[in-house]
Amino acid sequence: xxxxxxxxxxxxxxxxxxxxxxxxxxxxxxxxxxxxxxxxxxxxxxxxxxxxxxxxxxxxxxxxxxxxxxxxxxxxxxxxxxxx
Amino acid sequence: xxxxxxxxxxxxxxxxxxxxxxxxxxxxxxxxxxxxxxxxxxxxxxxxxxxxxxxxxxxxxxxxxxxxxxxxxxxxxxxxxxxxxxxxxxxxxxxxxxxxxxxxxxxxxxxxxxxxxxxxxxxxxxxxxxxxxxxxxxxxxxxxxxxxxxxxxxxxxxxxxxxxxxxxxxxxxxxxxxxxxxxxxxxxxxxxxxxxxxxxxxxxxxxxxxxxxxxxxxxxxxxxxxxxxxxxxxxxx
Lengths: 84, 237
Prior knowledge:
The structure holds two protein chains of two kinds. By secondary structure, chain A is α+β, with helices and mostly antiparallel strands. Chain A has two helices and five strands.
């Protein structure tokens, strides 16, 4: 499986685990490459979003936005587990 | 210097108090969710303030941050399921692996799980079983395992239902192997969304003919890692 990574402002590389569109906005679900490679028990999850041009990755605006984005991710991937 | 040492000690005490506070809140939510009250994810998230959740939020919620969307391709097999299940754990970190089942839209599964837990945790059903031990010349409890902790440990570790079944099976004592396998299969079906009616269904899905052949399957599934943690004590029980 080929994956893509991006580098955030902390100069760390993050794998893009998934992209979901919620209310017209694309959210990126990222995990720190180092933690994935080391298979840590808990992830270093970061959720960001794309701007309208999709040229820039933006931070989220609020904790509520974070929670909604995370719930959507869990909900979508829970269905995928059952269908595999 | 004395002031610095005093401040450090104060900070250390505050951190210990915070850890204790977090632990108490986790235990409170574990008790609440065990009694199957409705799960308010927002309230949970706001109250728990788990360090990992807060770190994730801190890295994500940055209203003024912009970085270029420049992608780099990497060729690496990374188990996506680990991320999915641990993402769920971040959302519901204190309820020991049942995160997915407490999703607020999953009412049917919550009800099924509630009914099942009322059945399986009913002490009249399981915990009062005894059998006569000839060498000790007395009745002894038949169960040398704790159902609740066993279920929580297995589900939180293994994403493959066949692997989970394997660890259930070799942890159970003989009495439960002989009498309670339907309950175990039901638990697995509820959690993993499978439809095992009997042990032969599990074996068929694994492509093996008998239980002892599952060891190879599980080893392959875990790439030889976790089976060594359990050790060989459970094999052949």
